[in-house]
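Protocol step 4 of 6: structure prediction from sequence.
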Amino acid sequence: MVAEALIGAYHSRYGKTPCPKQLEKLLYYAEGHHLATTGTPLFDEDIQAWEQGPVCPKVLPVYGGVKKYDPIPLPKIIPALHKTAIASIVIAVALFGKLDADIIGEKTHTEAPYAQTWDGGLGKNKVIPEQTMREFFKTHEIVTTPMTIIDDKSLISQGVAIEQSDVVADYLRAHPHLEPFLNELIQRAQTEIAGAKEITVEVYQDPEIDHRYLNVLVRQAECTELGTALDIIWENTFNTLKPNLMNGTVNLMTDFCPPKTVAA
């Protein structure tokens, strides 16, 4: 289930799926993050020290028959996981998913959990101890790096305006499971809404109840059918990703005002 969810998160962020080697290493990093931040494993299966790096043998059926550097088919069903599991997956994908398969593999080779277990080949196929990973990852960049969408896959680089970016970043750190949904909504709005448009992301505080949520605000000079088009995009994206909106919400909307600045 975790492997399928990671493939889905990767596809949502990068528009493609990882190859088997990338999947194995991203699972290792997601597991390390979860162990360090919650004290518990992300999944029950062991991670072993193989010659090519950390590997979870029981995940092999997920990509059986797929060559090491070929993209894994997107699962037909992306499972729903607990928010802490989603957070670990999203952070691993965001931080290391952009790395080439060989580069991420080399990175794992230099780190203590694998290097100590592998022990120059003497520990071939041995299980990497959870406690070793838990202690190592407490000070690892995957835990210490502030997680925000304002990175190289940022909203800014996509031509999206952010109102009070620190507030938006804090909201997403508190609700990391919403990031794939947010990114997909924005990408679809950019590609499916024809013509020039302005997209802004903001955290909105409901004045009547103690509730905050993310607004993705889309503006066009000619916006007669814009509201209907945005409703369709939101519904289709929700049905595809099935995010948990019981804890945090993302709206896709327009206020029917003209753009302040216009980006194609």
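Step 5 (inspection) to follow. The mean pLDDT is 86.
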